[in-house]
Amino acid sequence: MSETSEQLPTEMSIDDAVAFASRMHRLGELDAAERLYRRVLEVVPTHPDALNFLGILCHQRGYSEEALRLMHASLASQANAVGVWNNIGNILLDLGRIDEAAQAYAHCVNLDASDAQVWNNLGVLRRAQGRLADAEAAYLRALDVDPKHIDAHNNLGNLLAGIGRIEEAVQCYCRTIALMPGNPAARKMLGYAYCMLGRLDEAAEYYRKWLEEEPDNPTARHHLAACTGAHIPTRAEDAYVESVFDGFADSFDAKLAALTYRAPELVADAVRSLHPVAGKQLDILDAGCGTGLCGPLLAAHARTLTGIDLSGPMLTKAQGRNVYDQLIKAELSSFLHEAPPSVYDLLVSADTLCYFGDLETVFAGAFRTLRPGGSLIFTVELAEHIPEGAGYLLSPHGRYAHTLYYVTSALKAAGMEPVSAERQILRTEGGKPVNGLLQLARKPPGG
Question: pTM score, two decimals?
Answer without folding.
Answer: 0.75
